[in-house]
Amino acid sequence: MRGRRLFVLIAVIFVAYCAWMIGPYVRSTLVRDSAVTTWSRMAVAPIDGRIVTTLPSAGSTIGADGVVAVIENPLLFTEKQAVEDMRERLTAAEIGVQEADEQLQEILLMERERVAARDQMADLFHRTLETEIATLRTEIAVNAETIAVLERVVQRRRDLAGRGVGSSAELDEASLRLTGAKAREADLNSQLTYALLRNRSAEAGVYIATDGGTPDWLHYGELELKLEQQRLRHELDRAEARLADVRTGLELAQKALADLSSAPVPAPQGAHVFSLLAAPDAVVAAGQPVIEWIDCSILLVDVPVPDAEIALIDKGDTAEVVLEGESFTRAATVMLTRGSAATLGRRDLAALAKGRTSGVAQALLTLDADAAELAKCPIGQSAYVRFPDVGLIDVLRARLRL
User: Fold this and answer.
1) How far is CA 254 from CA 78, 188, 238, 260, 276, in A?
2) Residue ranges in 164-263 assigned as alpha helix (H)
3) pLDDT band of 156, cuts 50, 70, 90
4) Which end of the chain is more exposed for a tag (fewer CB within 10 A), N or C?
5) Residue 25 reports pLDDT greater than 60
6) Which is nearest to 313 in space by CA: 294, 334, 292, 295?
7) Which of these, 51, 49, 46, lies nearest to 287 by C-alpha position?
């Protein structure tokens, strides 16, 4: 009798333990403790400032411009001062470029004047050389006539000396004069050849002085002006580079001021406003949420699941869902599972299942829905979920580690 009572006691304890273990499964199967949900997204303030436009109401849809609200911030003293400083630097840089360019233009003018003077000297060189050539040719012609006359005189003196009439001294004198004329002819021809060579070189841009050197006027001041031009060109390049940097800095400072002065709070076109997290005319900080929005084209189901059952559910498994107020079954697919210590909460999902308590695991399903269901956007609606591949026996065996 005593043994029978002990057996009954053990059986009652075992049944009570089994009931306690499978209780969450039975509850989740019989009670519609799941909920339709979707991903929760925040439209945050891009800058510090005050909301100056009317906020959309909860349940409304974001328009085509994708603007939730506009934030303005007139208290940007540092940024405004930065713009003014950059404008002053821009003025100074522009003056620097202008001064460097004016100095360079002065040097270029001096170079043009030097070149013009050189060209005038070159023209004068040509004219002088042509006059010299003409003079040499005239002298050669005159000297040729002198030679012809002296040759006749010498011939006559030689004839007279041969007949014994003339003196040898007169013949020697005439011969000496003829030799001097011929020597002068050779010298004049040499000078003419050299003058013609200089003339041809001058026509090619190479000027040769009488002594064979280069005329001083040809390169007078050229080296100094070229060095000064090079220095001023480098200075102008540096000034223009500084000007370009300052202009870029001013553009960036102006853009930063404009971006921080006024900015829209963006959200996707067609998104549904789920809740307001800020009030109109409120002062907000950059990164502070203004509204919470959801995309109703993505419907999920948050399913509370016992820890023993969650191990039996895999990603991609099918599920059957019945929404509150409906009698027909919808198809769903397991998207992810989480243990009770790592469930997705209100920061991630727009709505949580009413059976969501500590110690309860989570299965998140993607719900097949038609266009009408998407338009209704039943976020937060209760639902009953069943996993056809997981039964009571499977849960019990998992609990008992069988």
Assistant:
1) 12, 82, 24, 10, 32
2) 168-203, 222-261
3) confident
4) N
5) no
6) 334
7) 46
CB 331 within 8 Å of CB 368: yes
Question: Per-residue pLDDT for 172 more than 90?
Answer: no
DSSP H helices, 31-62, are none
What's the confidence (pLDDT) of residue 94?
94
Rg for the chain, CA atoms, rounded? 55
Return the exposure string of 319-356: e unless at least 16 CB atoms fall within 10 Å of the residue's CB, then b. Answer: bebbbeeeeeebebebeebeebeebbeeeebbbbbebb
* pLDDT at residue number 395: 52
Question: What values do phi and psi take at 364, rounded to 5?
Answer: -110, 125
Per-residue model confidence (pLDDT) at position 1: 55
315: left (phi over 0), alpha (psi -120 to 50) or beta: beta
Residue 42: per-residue pLDDT:
93
Q: Please report, for residues 54, 198, 279, the alpha-carbon distance to residue 66 in angstroms, rounded to integers and kept in the order given.
A: 14, 84, 19
Question: Which percentage of the chain shows pLDDT scores above 90?
Answer: 37
- Could you tell me how far CA 242 lies from the centroid of its own chain? 19
Q: Which of 305, 399, 303 is nearest to 361 (CA)?
A: 305
Which of 84, 255, 376, 189 shows the shortest CA–CA distance to 197? 189
Q: What share of the chain is helix, strand, coil (3-state, %, to 5)?
A: 55, 20, 30
Closest to 276 (Cα-Cα) out of 53, 37, 55: 55
Q: CA nearest 344: which of 300, 313, 386?
A: 300
Please state, in angstroms and rounded to a whole number, the distance separating the CA atoms of residues 180 and 300: 127
Three-class secondary structure of residue 219 per DSSP: coil
Are 47 and 263 within 8 A, CB to CB?
yes
Closest to 369 measured CA to CA, from 303, 323, 314: 323
Residues 6+ apart with CB under 8 A from 343: 356, 360, 361, 362
pLDDT digits (tens, 9 = 90+) for 93-135: 999 999 999 999 998 888 888 888 888 888 888 888 889 899 9
CB 304 within 8 A of CB 28: yes
The DSSP output letter for 218 is G
Among residues 195, 189, 178, the alpha carbon closest in space to that of 140 is found at: 189
Q: Which two tokens stand for residue 101?
A: 């360019």
Rounded distance, CA 219 to CA 236, Å? 26
Note the pTM of the prediction, 2 decimals: 0.60
